[in-house]
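Collaborator request, handled under Task 6.
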Amino acid sequence: MPSRRWGHHPAVLVAGILLIAMNLRAPFTSVAPLLESLQQALGFNATAAGLLMILPLLAFVIVSPLVPRLARGLGLERSAFLALLIIALGIVLRAQGSVLALYLGLALVGAGIAIGNVLLPSLVKRDFPNHIALLTSCYVLTMGIMAAIASSTAIPLEQATTSGWRFALVAMLVLPIITMLVWWPQLSSRTAPLIACAPVARSTSIWKSPLAWQVTIFMGFNSLVYYTVNSWLPTILADSGFTAEQAGSLHGVLQLASAVPGLVLVPLMPRLKDQRMIACLAPGMSLAGFIGLLLAPEWALAWVILIGGGAGAAFILALSFVGMRSRNSSQAASLSSMAQTVGYLVAAMGPPIIGGMHDWFGNWQLALMVCVGACALMACFGFLAGRNLQLPE
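Structure tokens returned to the collaborator:
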């Protein structure tokens, strides 16, 4: 069994999971603070910038359904290494200075992140079935901390050299390189393919399950909210009178706030009979933050903390639901693929639509109201997904 193979070195696997998690947001979130510079250098309007930001999300949609088959063929460890390699190639390509390279590079980054996003819940389910909530919270915390560092340092890195935004983008290359070096020794052993862990769950049964759809829609609305605010928060704040440095720092606060719920959910979730209450409270926090940003933007720090905290808690819940609602690692991979495929398809609609609303109306009011509505719907589906149930065999 794979768990026995790793049984002698659980700390190595945990460290690898956390390092991989560092690569699953930072290369993407580091772009948003640089959007204004990219628009000026390459001639984007808000709609085109929104389309740029959805390229990784579209890559998620295309690649996520393919990951279970990839994992069954290569094994989880080798598939994870491939994800890191693709992310590294995308980071290098997007910093070459042309529009085409920027678009293709971001698409590659998204493809690598998609593979990692699908693999990690299945890896946790396979090797740590009794600690799903704990490890999920830990790697989401790590993911958020690194994303916060990437966001808050993007503008200083841009200003540090004459290469400007190109240097700020390529600086993220250090993450996949370090992770690949640490992960490399795992490739020397024969990794059992995922199919050996359990019979493969038929995708048709997953797609026909109401519970699977409840988990999927909950993740979808959370992804819509998170990636929309992640893409446009610096611009929204700049239009409200904040400087680029202040907007970048608050964008970093958003990432950090999204990581903090892990500290609370780690001890809390094992004690809960089910997750219905917390699955309603999390989107409620984000809803309150969007209303505050709409009515009193001068208090942006408080609203950003609420939005990030709510989105981070919902993200941890969505990933935990993948493990908690599935019966084995193969079923977890199928549910993870479904939830992330549909979820990121929904999320991909956010940035360009919100950017288009800004271009059409000249302000962010309607866009923020859309986010409020998405949070309300997320709470409804969170209540359903939070019940203590599992998918059928």
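The cover message to the collaborator said: "The chain has one domain: 2-385. The chain is about 80% helix and 0% strand. Please let us know whether this matches your experimental observations."
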